[in-house]
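Why do we care about 3D structure at all? Because function follows from shape, and shape follows, mostly, from sequence. That is the central idea of this module. The next example makes it concrete: a single protein chain, its amino acid sequence, and then its structure expressed as tokens.
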Amino acid sequence: MVTQDSLFVKGKLLGQTKAGYLTVSGGRIQSIDSEPSAAAMNWIGSATSWVLPAFFDIQVNGFSGVDFNSGDLVSEQLEQSVAALRRKGVLFFFATVITHSEQYQSACLRSIDKAIRASQLGRAVAGIHLEGPFISPQDGPRGAHPAEHVRPPNFDEFQRLQESAGGRIRLVTVAPEWDGAISLIERLVKGGIVVAIGHTAANRSQIEAAASAGALCSTHLGNGSHALLPRHENYIWEQLADDRLWASFIVDGHHLPPAVVKSFIRAKGVERSILTSDAIAAAGMPPGCYRLGDVEVTVSPSYRVERTDQAGSGYLAGSALDLARGVENACRFAGVTLAQAVQMASTNPARLMGCLDKVGTLVPGQEANLLVVEWEDQSCAMTLKHVVSAGDVVYSNFS
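And the structure:
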């Protein structure tokens, strides 16, 4: 890691055609100029580089061999995953805990909170995403979550889980068809928690009620669903059509076919679309067998992730994706521009989660969390050259 009083960054900003010059000092962007500062001595970047806001992933179950659902996460493991995510351009993320018993989830949440407090890199965890247990018990909508631990919404239980998490739960995925779900959503929203609809078999009125109660997002829309649905009236169309709901998408080529990604982003609009990875411990690792909590998953040579005991079922169990590849795939699949893909991987999740003070924009006064990349427009290929966290260069690729 390189720490210096002033950092000078050269490259094109999104929306520009010529290189700009960023001066960073005190961990923040001080100025963005058309000409280099007279004080500038050493630069990172070049006239062909792009300078992007760092990525923000709101659903990371684990990364680089580290499982956030193990129940015994320690600071060294957290730092291993944070360092690996940095090398993919992700400076902030939500550690995600999936469905299990209350005792087991509490252990996971306590270990995440403890690891964050003990780690010098803990600020990378912008919050915790509680994805379950208040989800659909049906095969398909339940996804890879263990059926025996799915249960009805219970605000008292959420409060106990939040206490275990040290108050870090900021996003909760809920299936709104449960009795008591709408009341839970209202109470969570009143407490400043962002609620997402997900792993659901809800009908139109239930989805409308959830959005009216304050639910703001759909978790990895198009996944955590039945393999076959009525062609017109179903919960995917209903969530796509509701303009009150943002939606996250896993753009790894396995969860959603390219034509579906294109159609979904066009329907929801770039301004309400979010790219997420749903990464598990296998992400950033070679094909093989890994853990997601107490479930074994298999990563195929094509990086498709399934529960080992459900191989060939068609149901996936997280992904091996990182957001840099998600940005590339969004451009390839949906025909969006680099600027639009970065908006979905950085600005939009930061806006939804109230983190624009840290990430998502590049303006004077903003904390300097940014990427310097080379971008090949024809092939939609990104080469990450430098990662800057709070004004410090924390990763450089000189190849």
